[in-house]
Description:
Elements: H1 5-26, E1 28-35, E2 54-56, E3 61-63, E4 69-73, E5 78-82, E6 88-89, E7 101-104, E8 129-133, E9 139-145, H2 153-162, E10 174-177, H3 189-197, E11 203-205, H4 224-230, E12 235-239, E13 242-246, E14 250-253, E15 256-259, H5 263-274, E16 281-285, H6 297-303, E17 309-313, E18 320-324, E19 337-341, E20 371-378, E21 381-388, E22 397-400, E23 404-406, E24 414-419, E25 427-432, E26 439-440, E27 442-446, H7 449-455, H8 459-462, E28 476-483, E29 492-501, E30 507-517
Parallel strand pairs: 1-8, 9-10, 10-11, 13-16, 16-17, 17-19, 23-30
Antiparallel strand pairs: 1-4, 2-3, 2-5, 5-7, 6-8, 9-20, 12-13, 14-15, 18-19, 20-21, 22-24, 24-28, 25-26, 25-29, 27-28, 29-30
Amino acid sequence: xxxxxxxxxxxxxxxxxxxxxxxxxxxxxxxxxxxxxxxxxxxxxxxxxxxxxxxxxxxxxxxxxxxxxxxxxxxxxxxxxxxxxxxxxxxxxxxxxxxxxxxxxxxxxxxxxxxxxxxxxxxxxxxxxxxxxxxxxxxxxxxxxxxxxxxxxxxxxxxxxxxxxxxxxxxxxxxxxxxxxxxxxxxxxxxxxxxxxxxxxxxxxxxxxxxxxxxxxxxxxxxxxxxxxxxxxxxxxxxxxxxxxxxxxxxxxxxxxxxxxxxxxxxxxxxxxxxxxxxxxxxxxxxxxxxxxxxxxxxxxxxxxxxxxxxxxxxxxxxxxxxxxxxxxxxxxxxxxxxxxxxxxxxxxxxxxxxxxxxxxxxxxxxxxxxxxxxxxxxxxxxxxxxxxxxxxxxxxxxxxxxxxxxxxxxxxxxxxxxxxxxxxxxxxxxxxxxxxxxxxxxxxxxxxxxxxxxxxxxxxxxxxxxxxxxxxxxxxxxxxxxxxxxxxxxxxxxxxxxxxxxxxxxxxxxxxxxxxxxxxxx
Length: 523
């Protein structure tokens, strides 16, 4: 018997409605990127759409068409953001936090005791991003903080008094913090961000393992407070001739955290690099170094197609360099990929005696004073400097040796140099006085002498107890030693000069004044 019209039509109609509903639930986000010529924050009549600007949903990457229009898949918990192109600025709020994104979270964040994202409602008909024209030179400096790691407002105030005042009025292009803004106290994320904002330049943030919401059991909810204050935890922006990629590399579960790139971060990197010119400088900002990541190859593999790359991570509270060679961790370029594991703003977790201003000395366990890095970019090249908090820019090393050396001890007496930004392959030399040849010093892995003194320990006691523990000094790879080997030096006062050339070709100098005494004389 031939089926009735209703018997055929109704099921087909229900199927179509269900399919439409499913499609609507997934949805497609659309919008326009336009030139906000008067920086009003709204698209005014005559403001043109910008072509070939990249927009992302945190995984996929799309380019705007000739009229500035874009579209991307949308879910029920996604952040859409524009990848700021060179020659433009994005809006910033009163605390210089860049506002380059739109959060789509209809139900908002799960309930909790710390700030989250309020319900955003349905997907807007058009998500528009305005970009303000601004000249950007190819040569500029960026400020790089790592691990301020504030436990409560007292340590927020340490940040405000230790590293921020000397940077107010800087001509740096922007700043970034490499994660661990707080120490598991996400209620203070906003306060730390507000302090950095006083410097006066746009300030970007990286998600660290101590910045997560502890009251959730699913990874996708672990960065709710971070999103509330700063937006996406994986994103990118261009400045001058460089492309900066900010990556989350922590995944949480009910059992704890794992050091790895989430799937969306790896996908975003791959898709973005597919749309990146090969001659561009690519700089990656992350929290956990490659050496600790389970799936570093998912980012290093695509990155190795580019000749000009550099990465900066934090997390370790010491300063060291890592070089990823060909065939390692997915890197397949002949030249090694260079990553600086930068020292921390909080140094050794704000530990140690307080100075005359009430701030702990916080010297890191490798002997590096707490502080921050300065990334100097010039076209497709970059280099890094270390800036010790509240110290002169020239202060780049500690030189250790006896204050007084007897004539008979001059051949065997040793000098030790802790060159804070140094890598083992760097050239460190010394000489006594202004004449004579520079003598090479030997790189060694050992404990910083002052760290041992401060902690009242010795190397033998620490043997076998090395670890990421704030209670112990840590052996450093940026230490050099040499015997004075100058038996003919006459009694009196002399200066030991040290010259160090770092991995970026920069030359630094240090000095130590000492006395030579006759044998048997008091020292």
